[in-house]
Amino acid sequence: MKIIKIVFSLVILLMLTCLGGLYYAFKIEPYRLVVNQHQLENRSSKEKIKIVQLSDLHIKKDFDAKHLDKVIQKTNEQNPDFIVFSGDLYDNYAHYNENEQVISKLQKMKAKYGKIAIWGNRDYGGGASREYANIMSESGFTLLRNENLLVPMNNGEKILFTGLDDTLLGNPSLPSSYQMEESTYDVLLTHEPDEVSQYQNKGYELILSGHSHGGQVNIPFIPQVQKKAASVMKHSNNYTGGLYQLNTNETLYVNTGIGTTHLSARFGVVPEIAVFNF
């Protein structure tokens, strides 16, 4: 009888733990937000540079425009030189969109030298391709599609941003590299990280990507779960999230994003804003 009571208590405890975990995954973690700071080496520039990267907002009914307030606040608190958005504004434009509210929110993001965006796969589907360019333009972002943006800084040096089209639904190709001759530091923006092998050894010190969502699930001490989740959701097979040193002079960062897709839950992959200081 005593053993039965112990087993029953353990079953109840396990059930409560599972329910608590589910509540946290669906109702708490997706609405948290962390700022991850990264210090990168930059021996060539006379001016310190700060880039804030946002990715994969996936705005939808359960993560609408009002949830951008915290993102805007934490972004502006960094006093960034540049803000980069690496794609996927809405989760499914055909099912949910609120352009005026989104533009009003994104306009509040401030950067010393400018705000830059690229296309993600979700920025094409559900009719989003007809609206995305205008939304980002009205929000004060320069939207790049296989284009370079050479930005002069106050000390006379220049930083180059190359933004590629989305790999899944677009047609990415590297533009001419001649402007690299004028730049002090070169940043490549591409939504899907698994395609990075095509753009290695092209002269970019930093490659910024997103799309993976970090698998949205990361069980401590079982990294295979996160990798499998990212793969199953067709987000990433090779680069799940974080910093990857591709070679001596080339760093890839895979932003695990802010929103959710497929399943409105996160566990062990808190929504992030990434900050790069160099």
TrEMBL record:
It comes from the Bacteria. The chain crosses the membrane at residues 7-26. InterPro entries: Calcineurin-like_PHP, Metallo-depent_PP-like, Metallophosphoesterase_sf. PANTHER family: PHOSPHOESTERASE (PTHR31302:SF25), TRANSMEMBRANE PROTEIN WITH METALLOPHOSPHOESTERASE DOMAIN-RELATED (PTHR31302). This is Putative serine/threonine phosphatase. One of its GO terms (biological process) is lipid A biosynthetic process. It comes from Lactococcus cremoris subsp. cremoris GE214. GO terms for cellular component: membrane. The keyword Transmembrane helix applies. GO terms for molecular function: UDP-2,3-diacylglucosamine hydrolase activity. The keyword Transmembrane helix applies. Keywords: Membrane, Transmembrane, Transmembrane helix. Pfam families: Metallophos. Residues 49-214 form the Calcineurin-like phosphoesterase domain.
